[in-house]
Amino acid sequence: MQSFKSGRNSRIRRSFLTSFIEEFIPKDKKEFFTLPNSRHYLIEEEKFTRYGRIDIYIDSLDSEKKFGIVIENKLYAQDQHKQIKRYYEFLKTNKFAAPNNQMMIFYLTIHGGNPDKHSIDPQLKQELTDKKILKNISYKKDIKNWLQKTTPSIQADKVKYSVIQYVNNIERL
User: Fold this and answer.
1) DSSP letter, residue 131
2) What is the spatial distance between Cα 24 and Cα 35, in angstroms, rounded to a whole number?
3) What single DSSP character describes residue 139?
4) How would you write the pLDDT of the chain (173 residues) with one tens digit per residue?
5) Residue 135 belongs to what H/E stretch?
6) Do residues 31 and 102 touch, judged by C-beta distance below 8 A?
């Protein structure tokens, strides 16, 4: 997941970002979340906010397309009290409270499970799911398939080998 953060080569970074957006952003939001240059994305790992520590945060630096993406990684971890609700509040109180809801929260688990009820109440969860703001994704299916689709286009051997190893690790989860 951090491949698009740690990629030093801008072409590799752009490839992972573009691929992630293409794979996981809903079709009706995709154009808005696609920026012309990878330098227009700010990617932060373990972003500390007053709402909690966000595992991966992707922010738009584009002056015309402002959005925020939260990726909450739940690999053998429990939800914190109101965690997903707090991350939604973080996105709302920043620059993304526009009526078009240009924000996404990806809840990433091994099998694509739902956040716990103490993390987000069922009514708000349903509302965010219906508005295509909250999306559950899994390592076993979604991330694995995404990386397998991305691998053939990777030209750098070290990066390609790392992705293949990562996919192998996912299979062992």
Assistant:
1) T
2) 15
3) I
4) 545 545 455 567 667 888 999 999 999 999 889 888 778 888 888 999 999 999 999 988 888 888 999 999 999 899 999 999 999 999 988 766 555 568 999 999 999 999 999 999 999 999 999 999 999 999 999 999 999 999 998 888 999 999 999 999 999 99
5) strand 134-138
6) no
Strands (E), 26-140: 41-49, 52-60, 68-74, 103-109, 134-138
- Say which residues have a Cβ less than 8 Å from residue 79's Cβ, sequence separation at least 6: 115, 116, 118, 119
Residue 124: both structure tokens together: 């708000």
Classify residue 58 as left (phi > 0), alpha (psi -120 to 50) or beta.
beta
The single-letter code of the amino acid at 52 is G
Type of residue at 13: R
Three-state secondary structure of 61-85 = CCCCCCCEEEEEEECCCCCCCCHHH
**Two structure tokens written together for 81:** 């009290």
- Beta strand 103-109 with 68-74: parallel, antiparallel or unpaired? parallel
What is the spatial distance between Cα 113 and Cα 77, in angstroms, rounded to a whole number?
Answer: 12
